Here is the input.
Amino acid sequence: MTSTIDRTAPRELAAELPARLSLTPKTTLAGQLDGAWWPRSRDLEDELPGLAAALDEPWGRITRVTVNPTRWRVIPHTVPMAGRVMHVGWFTEQDPDKLILLSHTVGRWDLLVIPPETDPAAAARLMAAAAIPGSVLTAGVLMANEAAIGRGVRDARRRIATWESEGGACMSPFGNLTMPANGGRR
Here is the structure.
């Protein structure tokens, strides 16, 4: 039996799925971030068109994007999209967990980039935290905080699993119900 692998399927799938975004509401409070983006892969050429399309209405046409190269396998110089080209640059000085979007007419936006392999609960926490108006937390701080929370959650789950596997304990609303040594006799 022969099977054919369609190498275009992920790119087509990425174009059909909506961008996973959380944006800071319009306010006069300026913060470190303007929201968060949770891409489905580490392929900028696949992911950026969906992001730019989702931001066209609220932010205007995105013309340039900058990233730190440590989080992306390949950084294309340009990304073709719907009759135009978006330019992509990289800077090692830029926070590795941040994406900077630029527009000629509207300005600059900084988004936290949540790694594609992130657990959905952790991604939800990060997306909410990045969209808080006026927040002074940077992308790196948010990611470090989430790493600490993730370790705490894993440790708690491990302790509960250990406790359960060792028999656990009977919780009673009446406290400890052990019998006295003399069997309750006076």
Notes: The mean pLDDT is 83.
